[in-house]
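It is worth pausing here to work through a concrete case rather than discussing structure prediction in the abstract. The textbook approach is simple: state the sequence, then state the predicted structure, then interpret. We follow exactly that order.
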Amino acid sequence: LSPQDSILLTEIVEVGVLPSFIHHENETRYSFSMLTRQGLRYECSSSSKVQ
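Step two, the predicted structure:
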């Protein structure tokens, strides 16, 4: 997903945590994956921790 894309929450069937990593200027990026009803798996990262 790009920042302009979206997905309905009802389409997400599973969220998983992936290893975090250090990005530019020592910024920690928290990675996670989302699995949709259609079987698509998206791997994403954010500067915010997944809750």
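Step three, interpretation. The chain is about 0% helix and 50% strand. The longest strand covers residues 27-36.
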